[in-house]
Design a protein that fits this description.
By secondary structure, the chain is an alpha/beta fold. The chain has helices spanning about 15-20, 25-30, 50-55, 70-85, 120-130, 160-165, and strands at about 40, 60-65, 90, 105-110, 130-140, 170-180, 185-190.
C-alpha cells in the first residue's frame, strides 16, 4: 500500500521542521537552478519550491506548478495574485499524465513524490517525455531509515531503487547526493 499525502495535512508542507530539513537555498544551489529555464515542479503542493524557483529562473523562465490536487493549486494561485508573480503556471494533472507538451522543460523537480507513486517507471517515462534531450531530473526523497520526522521507513524508497528506475526510463549520469539525515537528492540527465 503506497502512502499518499493528504491535502488536509498541507500545513505540514511549510512547517519550521520542514524548513530546517529541506533548506530551500541550499537545495537550489545544489541542483543548480539557472536563469531563463523552464522547470516542472511536479507534486508542487503549496509551492514550497515553486516560488523560490520562480525567483531563480527570473522573468524569462517559467515554472510549471504541477499537482493532482486542485486545492494545492488554489493556494499557488492565491500566492501568485498576492505577490504579482507572472512566471508560474499552475497545472492540474493526473498521476501518469502531467499535461505538458513533449520537451517543454529543461528541469523536472520532484520532492517527496516518488515514494507515493505506485508505477514508478511509468511515471518516470512521463517525466522523461516533458524534458528536452539533456534535460535534468532532480528527485528529493526520504532516507530509507526510521526517523523522528516523515513517513515510516517501509513507505520510503532506497536511492538504489530510484537509480534503477531512472536507468530503465531513459536517464543516465545519475548522481546521488546525501542532503542530511532525512533526505537525499538523486539527479539524472535525459539521454
Amino acid at each position: 500500500m503506497k502512502h499518499k499525502f493528504k491535502v488536509i495535512n498541507k500545513s505540514k508542507l511549510d512547517s519550521p521542521k520542514r524548513r530546517e530539513a529541506l533548506p530551500i537555498h541550499k537545495i537550489l544551489a545544489e541542483i543548480g537552478v539557472k536563469k531563463s529555464v523552464n522547470i516542472a515542479d511536479i507534486g508542487c503542493g503549496i509551492g514550497y519550491f515553486t516560488f523560490p524557483f520562480a525567483e531563480a529562473v527570473g522573468e524569462d523562465g517559467l515554472v510549471y506548478a504541477i499537482d493532482i490536487e486542485s486545492e494545492m493549486l488554489e493556494d499557488i494561485k492565491s500566492k501568485m495574485d498576492e505577490n504579482d508573480i507572472k512566471n508560474v503556471i499552475p497545472v492540474i494533472s493526473q498521476e501518469y499524465d502531467l499535461k505538458l507538451e513533449n520537451s517543454s522543460v529543461k528541469m523536472a523537480f520532484l520532492c517527496t513524490v516518488m515514494h507515493e507513486v505506485k508505477m514508478r517507471e511509468k511515471f518516470l517515462k512521463e517525466v522523461n517525455r516533458l524534458l528536452v534531450t539533456g534535460g535534468e531530473i532532480n528527485i528529493i526523497e526520504w532516507v530509507k531509515e526510521e526517523s523522528d520526522y516523515g513517513p515510516p521507513a517501509d513507505h520510503r524508497l532506497d536511492a538504489s531503487i530510484i537509480k534503477r528506475n531512472l536507468q530503465r526510463t531513459g536517464f543516465d549520469h545519475i548522481k546521488i547526493i546525501h542532503l542530511n539525515e532525512y533526505f537525499y537528492i538523486i539527479q539524472a540527465i535525459k539521454k
